[in-house]
Structure formats: C-alpha cells, structure tokens
Design a protein that fits this description.
The chain is of the alpha+beta class. The protein folds into two domains: about 5-70 and about 185-245 and about 345-395, FAD/NAD(P)-binding domain (3-Layer(bba) Sandwich), CATH 3.50.50; about 120-175 and about 245-340, D-Amino Acid Oxidase, subunit A, domain 2 (D-Amino Acid Oxidase, Chain A, domain 2, 2-Layer Sandwich), CATH 3.30.9.10. The chain is built from nine helices and 18 strands. The protein binds flavin-adenine dinucleotide (FAD). The site of flavin-adenine dinucleotide has 40 residues, from α2, β12, β16 and α8.
C-alpha cells in the first residue's frame, strides 16, 4: 500500500547521502527498533546512548511519510486547549505545551552539538482565522496561553502585520522552528552510527516470542534475537496486533518555484483554522510550502484523481491568500502522505499487551514534536520509571 506519492521536495533537493547495508546474517541485540523514519531516528538517537540498539528499515531511512512533513514545529497541538479539555486536564495540557517548547530546545541543542546540516531555524508561529465565527476560538486560546505564562500576542484585522487578511490571530514569538525532515532524520541516524547497528532495505516480516525475548525474522530469512522490540513503522500496521489504532489522514502539499523578495514578519510559520486546515511557511531557498486539505481514509490511502484536485485547489487558494505574490506563484513540487490522528492529539507510545513489545507512533500534524517528547517518555518506560504522562500516550488507552 502506498502512503506517500508525488515528488517530496525535501528528498528531491537533498544530495544522496550515505546508504546503509541490508542484513545478511543472524544478529543479537538488546532493543530492536523497526522503522527508520523520523520517529525511529529520534528514538534511536536517545536510546542508543545507553542500550545496545539495532535500527532497521524495509526501505531507506527517512523516505516514507517523514519526507512529506511540511515541518511546522510548534508546541501547540492540532486542537485548541478548550477542545482538548474533554481528554486531558488543564494541568496536563499546560505540561504538554511545555514539553513541546522543551522539545524545540532539545532539537536546538542537538543542532548546536552536531552542526546544522538540516536547515534548522527557530521562527515564530502564527495561528489565525479569517472568519468572524473563528475569532472567539482564537481569543480563548490566546487567553489560555496568557493565563499559563506562554508568550502570546493577539493580532486583529486592524493590527495585522501579515500580507493576507485575518479576523484574529495568535503570534508566538518563540513558539516554533523548522528544518528539512529528511536531512534531520539522516543526521540523527548518522550521529548515533557509532553506537547502533543500522540496516536499510531489510523488512521485518514476522515477530515470534521465545520465552525471554523475541525473534524478528527478516524478508531475507535472517533472524534478529532481541529482548525488546519497538515498532516505529508509521502506517505499516502489519506487525501490530491492533489494526485500527487511530484515524488515518492524507495531507496534500505544494511547493512553489523560488519567489523574489518573499518575506513576512520574521518568516513565521502560518496555520489557519479552516476545516480542513492549511499550513504555510517560507522555505530557506525562498519558496512557499503550502499544505493541508486533509482527507480521511480507511483502506486505500491515496487516490490519484483526488490528489490532483487537491493540488489544484491548494494552488488556487495560495494565490488568493497572497494576491501580492499571485503572478509569481508557480508550483514545482506536489506530494501527499499519510499521518495518524488521535482524539487527544498525542502519539501512541508505550508498551502493548505483549510485555516488552512497544509502539512508537507519533500522531497529528505536530507529530515530530510528539516524537521528541515521546523519546524521553520511552526512556522512562524502558527503565521502569514512573512517568506522569504515560497514560496520555499509552497505545492501550481508549
Ligand atoms: C503532508 C504531511 C505534513 C506533515 N506536516 C507536519 C508538520 O508540519 N509538523 C510535524 O511535526 N509533523 C508533520 N507531519 C507528521 C509527520 O510527518 C509524522 O509524524 C512523521 O513523519 C512520522 O514519522 P514515522 O517515522 O513514524 O513514519 P515514516 O516516515 O512513515 O517511517 C516509518 C518507517 O518504517 C518503515 N517500516 C514500516 N514497516 C516496516 C517493517 N515491517 N520492517 C522494516 N521497516 C518498516 C518504513 O519503511 C518507514 O521508513 C506531516 C505529515 C504529512 C503526511
């Protein structure tokens, strides 16, 4: 089944980087991570500092849904705090927001230690509405943030500094960041390469419990004996007991050719409140990346005809949103990919009903930040430490 289609910009513009071998003999390790997308890469980076880890991917690292992420790295979740109160307490929402901010700092720390090979930069974020009905939601979210000491500035039609119309919007000066997700994944993997066994082009086709651990069998027939297995396989649920873990969504993206003089307030990340929503940012090489128009799916993920319609709609909407740039907007890349959505907007991270078998699946349009704090949660779980947020991420939660 295909979960990614089109020409994912982030891979297309990146030089072909180091490839890793496939498995050709039986192996042993303490922890086997299956799936080398951005989730598996982040988890591997942190776990391999302490444990004997093997990371394996059936394809090439970072080339599945990871390569499609638009990468607006933000601390807030997909829904407003007010709507999340049905699933979390106010204190929990505040803690999750704080974990989001801390995760951006952790990425910054990683970049400072390892070099900026993935076009990372911190930028503000701006969430806005252009409807009168949406304005009260924005104002309430602003009040929630101010009440809990998050930096938040409310703009209205009169004070709007952006080149598109708004009724209201929340500006977070230090609430966001961006990078190339493919390069970040490769950098995380490469940075841990001295302490991990890394294999590409090797699929795990079967997992069997064998008393004190597991035997994971590859498509080549080689076997990996391990004590713990973590499935970071994104949308490939074939190895999972439960197949209906979350709502699945396809999100569509266009990237324009370079546009001269493109800028707005500090290159803020932009997100609207429409249903389906849209997100927009300026890429470091002066292109616009614009996406959204999400559609749900159950069995067949990508419908080519629908994808073409969505790309056309995104192109039209982008021109209408930014009339000053409309004559220069020419689309060069179009792609779409799948991600999962849960009620509380948080990933499925933790132990399953089978002891020592774990899921590490980020969720939501903010999945990358989910994976950053999920990696810290997973370390606690592996070490048997209490973590006050484990229940919010548990794959066994209802
Ligand atoms: C269009 C779009 C826009 C997005 N925008 C954002 C955004 O702005 N901000 C944000 O934070 N998030 C965003 N996301 C979400 C983000 O992309 C995901 O959270 C993230 O990519 C999930 O990474 P992953 O590693 O779980 O999945 P994947 O990248 O799909 O990786 C899973 C890997 O597992 C491997 N695999 C599967 N089965 C097996 C097996 N049996 N054996 C071996 N390997 C296996 C696959 O080959 C694959 O490489 C967006 C997603 C999409 C689709």
């Amino acid at each position: 089944m295909e979960y990614v289609k089109g020409t994912p910009y982030f891979c297309q513009v990146s030089e072909k980087i180091k490839q890793y071998p496939y498995i050709n003999k039986d192996l042993k390790c303490d922890i086997l991570i299956v799936g080398g997308g951005i989730d598996g890469a982040i988890l591997n980076y942190y776990l391999s500092k302490k444990y004997d880890v093997t990371l394996i991917d059936k394809s090439r690292f970072g080339r599945s849904c990871t390569s499609c992420a638009t990468v607006l790295l933000e601390y807030q979740l997909d829904d407003y705090a007010e709507d999340l109160l049905a699933f979390m307490s106010e204190e929990e929402i505040v803690s999750v927001y704080q974990m989001g901010l801390d995760s951006i700092e952790k990425i910054d720390e990683f970049i400072k230690q390892n070099g900026n090979l993935c076009h990372f930069r911190k930028v503000p974020s701006f969430m806005y509405t252009n409807s009168i009905f949406g304005a009260s939601g924005i104002e309430k979210e602003h009040q929630f943030r101010v009440k809990h000491n998050f930096k938040s500035k409310l703009f209205t039609n009169e004070t709007n500094p952006f080149p598109f119309e708004i009724k209201a919007g929340i500006y977070n000066e230090d609430g966001g960041a961006e990078f190339n997700p493919y390069l970040f994944t490769k950098q995380m993997i490469e940075s841990a390469s001295n302490q991990t066994a890394l294999f590409e082009n090797t699929e795990i086709v079967k997992i069997v419990e064998n008393g004190d651990g597991f035997i994971a069998q590859t498509n080549f027939g080689d076997k990996i004996a391990c004590n713990k297995i973590i499935l970071a396989t994104g949308f490939n649920f074939s190895l999972m007991e439960e197949k209906d873990l979350c709502e699945r969504v396809i999100s569509y993206t266009i990237v324009t050719k370079q546009i001269k003089g493109l800028n707005w307030k500090h290159n803020a990340l932009i997100q609207d409140d429409q249903d389906p929503y849209h997100y927009l940012r300026i890429l470091p090489d002066n292109r616009l990346i614009f996406g959204g128009e999400d559609t749900k799916f159950k069995l067949k993920p990508i419908n080519d005809k629908l994808a073409r319609k969505k790309y056309d709609k995104l192109t039209k909407d982008l021109k209408a949103l930014l009339p000053d740039y409309a004559h220069e907007i020419e689309v060069e890349y179009k792609f779409c990919g799948a991600f999962g959505s849960t009620e509380n907007n948080l990933g499925l991270i933790g132990e399953t009903e089978t002891p020592n078998l774990y899921y590490f699946l980020s969720a939501g349009a903010n999945g990358i930040i989910n994976a950053m704090y999920g990696a810290r949660l997973m370390q606690d779980i592996i070490e048997g430490k209490e973590n006050p947020f484990a229940h919010l991420f548990s794959p066994l939660r209802k």
